[in-house]
C-alpha cells in the first residue's frame, strides 16, 4: 500500500480490528511514523507510553507497533492486540472526521 495522508483515509481502507488482522502491518506502513513523529524516539514514545491522542499520533504508534512486530522475528508478541486497540481508535477518529 502506498503512503496515505489522513485526509485520504476511508474506513474501508482501515483494517477491521475485530476481524482478520493479516493486513494491519501493511496499513500501518501507509505513513512513515519515524518521519512524521520527527524521530525514532518520539515515535516509540507514542507507542510505548500510550500517549497518542490525535489521528496522526495514533498512526505513528501503529507504525511503531508494526516495526516491533517485524523485528520480533516471529516470536511471541502482543503487538496484534495493541494493533487492534489502535485500529479502533484510528477508525473512530476517521469516522468522526477528526483528521488532525
Beta-strand share of residues: under 5%
User: Total number of β-strand segments?
Assistant: 0
Structural class determined from secondary elements: mainly alpha
What is the helical fraction, as a range of percent? 40-55%
Q: Could you describe the largest sheet, including whether it forms a barrel?
A: none
How would you describe the overall organization of this protein?
This protein has 100 residues and is mostly helical. The protein has one domain (6-96). 54% of the residues lie in helices and 0% in strands.
In short:
The protein is mostly helical. Helix content is 54%, strand content 0%. The two termini are 21 Å apart.
Topology record:
Elements: H1 24-28, H2 33-37, H3 40-48, H4 55-71, H5 79-96
Helix pairs in contact: 3-4, 4-5
Relevant terms:
single chain, 100 residues, mainly alpha, 54% helix, globular
Amino acid at each position: 500500500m502506498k503512503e496515505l495522508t489522513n485526509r485520504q483515509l476511508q474506513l474501508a481502507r482501515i483494517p477491521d480490528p475485530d476481524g482478520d488482522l493479516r493486513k494491519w502491518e501493511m496499513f500501518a506502513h501507509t505513513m512513515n511514523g519515524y518521519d512524521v513523529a520527527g524521530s525514532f524516539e518520539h515515535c516509540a514514545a507514542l507507542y510505548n507510553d500510550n500517549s497518542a491522542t490525535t489521528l496522526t499520533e495514533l498512526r505513528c504508534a501503529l507504525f511503531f507497533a508494526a516495526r516491533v512486530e517485524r523485528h520480533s522475528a516471529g516470536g511471541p508478541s502482543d503487538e496484534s492486540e495493541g494493533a487492534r486497540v489502535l485500529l479502533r481508535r484510528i477508525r473512530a477518529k476517521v469516522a468522526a472526521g477528526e483528521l488532525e
